[in-house]
Amino acid sequence: MKVKSVFADVKTALFCLTANALIMSSILPISNIYAQDVANSFPMYRYNLQRTGRVPFAGPSNDNLKWSISSSGEIWSSPVVDSDGVIYVGSTDGNLLSITPKGKVLWAFKTANEIFSAPAIGTDGIVYFGSADGRIYAINPDGKLKWKFQTGGAIHSSPAIDDKGTVYISSYDGKLYAIAANGKLLWSYKTGASIMTSSPSIGKDNTIYIGSWDMHLHALKADGSAKWNFETENKIDASPAVGEGTVYITDINGKLYAINLDGTLKWRFDLGGRTHSSPAIDRDETIYVGTQEGNLYAITKDGALKWKFKTEKSITASPTVDANGVIYIGSWDGK
User: Fold this and answer.
1) Are 323 and 310 in contact (CB under 8 A)?
2) How would you class 185 by CB atoms within 10 Å of its CB: exposed for 0-12, middle for 13-18, buried for 19 or more?
3) What's the predicted TM-score (pTM) here?
4) Exposure of 58 by Cβ count < 10 A (0-12 exposed, 13-18 middle, 19+ buried)?
């Protein structure tokens, strides 16, 4: 087992940017951004559309600090990184920041409310993100607004962008929105309650998955019609992770579900504590997830406990796995 717990100090979570990518960020709010040497892009939350949290490059070999910058607000947003190494991150002061690989702020785009979630970068370099003002924004690489779209509630989730440039994002109004690359609404899908922090994932067959406080994981076709929904025991804050023939999701009551692609239950594992952590999936389909009791779990693809790693305080972050199988996770113990 190779686990790295990365923090700057007791109060401040360390954003570990490696290979032009964020390897891990905690839900702990911070006002500083820290960087290490980097080499590859990290275009969206959980790295890919399947939200596996698995990256194809190695993480940092040491914890040497390269640079840091400060924001006037707290930073709950996970940074993303484009192919040129430019970093984008949101702040609760309402600004989306663009930062060079050397730590210089290129520009700040101001929204009308706080930004809590990670942006996503399209293949054309457009940066998409949501704000608590209820809008999703499309920003050109030079910081100029391309378009904005108003939803019916605050946005605390991160966008997914498919190969056609369609942007998918959820809102507190309980809807998942599909927005064309030109900013026009294609469709919206209404769940039975608010969607708080669950971000949509997209399977290789183009099925779209989203969790809701209505205690269901929803699977949608590309046209926005329902494919199936799976009832969980409690509300869902986590983002679904799509593996090989299986979708993994947690509910806030600490249940990890493995669901077949037809919507039937494969297995369920009791994590023994509340969780807001999204699952990560390793190459051998081992699933990693953290709990508020401070445990990081490794679960086999068959639903058996592989191992458990104990930290001193809650884990609300989602783990990330690098190409060498090293797992990165943050804990409220400040380590």
Assistant:
1) no
2) exposed
3) 0.90
4) middle
